[in-house]
Design goal:
The structure holds 2 protein chains of 2 kinds. By secondary structure, chain A is mainly alpha-helical. In chain A, 74% of the residues lie in helices and 0% in strands. Chain B is elongated and about 75 Å long. Classes of the chains: A mainly alpha, B mainly alpha.
Chain lengths: 178, 186
């Protein structure tokens, strides 16, 4: 079934079958979003489950299927922020947002190197736009930002990465460390 | 976002070390948002024609474009690699789905809803009095798919809470409505 059909079917029927199809369509994507944002595999799976429980509970809020992706990733982002807030007494915010040791599953990826040179908010943009393929409108919905701000920030990300790619290996290493 | 091919690439133009100005909002009549649209696109015909006509005569902008385009291409490739590099075993996926259903089925019950309604009434009463608080709850339920307060369930809780927040906004302002929305989360 096409992704759009899966979403439409879930929002109109709300059956267990439709929910399972939705889970199959988006489970890997949500888990990947959490992993690429620096969470370990167990936490990524826990938060993915939390998101689906919320989706099940709050499906009545969403009347326009076209807004599903933005709505879904807004829930995911809120869950991640809540997790960081809960963990804050135990972990320094800076370490959670900029983990010194990344989960094994993402270390060694080219994208991980690129994400390291970006601010946490920019990492969200990159993962949602370039990995998950959200449109600018969906990004605005997910991140609760105006469309122009989203585009401007994406342009800044391109500039930062261009600068980083043009830098010498030693400069790049310094950028990553800093 | 997919088309990152260079327009009319010219031979003999090496990338120089000229650094591009990353602080100005608009350079040579092309704004950052327009550059962004062009890199995604190539955007509208008007935008494409204007940027490409300008780049023919402007080495600096051509180099800016090449660098941004290269960075975008790298980013797109790295993202594709990440998409295929983080699979999830079926076994794990099924375990997660079982966990979700188990939580949904043990999720908010009728007594949970009653407790939450009492809490909302308790939040509303000091601000608007007990009669108005009760009226607000009934009005929010009547306008929701539940149609009456005793038929509010976890399934129709969200529109009920939205209606109540709207009423709270009218009664006591947006800050108070935010408090209602927060207090009403199941």
């Amino acid at each position: 079934m096409e992704e759009k059909q899966v979403i439409d079917s879930f929002l109109s029927d709300r059956t267990d079958e439709a929910f399972c199809a939705l889970f199959e369509a988006f489970c890997v994507r949500l888990r990947r979003y959490f992993l690429l944002r620096g969470l370990d595999a167990a936490t990524a799976e826990d938060l993915t489950q939390d998101v689906f429980v919320k989706v099940h509970q709050r499906a009545g809020e969403l009347r326009e299927p076209d807004r599903f992706h933005g709505w879904l990733f807004a829930i995911a982002r809120n869950e991640m922020v809540s997790y960081w807030r809960r963990e804050q007494p135990r972990l320094e915010w800076a370490n959670v947002e900029n983990p010194v040791v990344e989960p094994d599953v993402i270390s060694g990826m080219r994208l991980t190197d690129m994400l390291r040179t970006l601010e946490p908010a920019e990492r969200d943009l990159v993962v949602l736009r370039f990995v998950e393929g959200l449109s600018y409108e969906e990004l605005a919905e997910a991140l609760k930002l105006p469309l122009g701000t989203i585009k401007w920030r994406i342009f800044n990300v391109r500039k930062k990465l261009a600068r980083s790619l043009a830098a010498s290996p030693a400069q790049r290493a310094r950028e990553i460390i800093n | 976002m997919q088309d990152h091919s260079l327009p009319r690439r010219r031979s003999g133009r090496e990338k120089s070390s000229i650094s591009f100005d990353v602080t100005s909002d608009m350079k040579h009549g092309i704004s950052e948002l327009e550059w962004n649209d062009y890199l995604d696109g190539p955007g509208t015909v008007e935008l494409r024609d204007r940027i490409e006509a300008h780049m023919i005569g402007c080495l600096e902008c051509w180099q800016l474009y090449e660098r941004l385009s290269d960075a975008t291409r790298e980013l797109v490739e790295a993202s594709e690699e990440a998409r295929s590099g983080l699979p999830l075993e079926d076994r794990r996926m099924h375990a997660m789905l079982r966990g979700i259903f188990s939580r949904i089925r043990s999720g908010p019950t009728k007594s949970h809803i009653e407790g939450r309604l009492n809490l909302l009434e308790g939040v509303l009463t000091p601000f608007c009095g007990s009669q108005a608080a009760l009226s607000a709850l009934h009005a929010a339920a009547q306008k929701s798919p539940a149609r009456s307060l005793d038929r509010v369930t976890p399934d129709n809780w969200a529109p009920f809470l939205e209606n109540l927040s709207a009423i709270a906004t009218a009664m006591c302002g947006a800050t108070f409505a935010g408090l209602i929305r927060e207090s009403g989360q199941l």
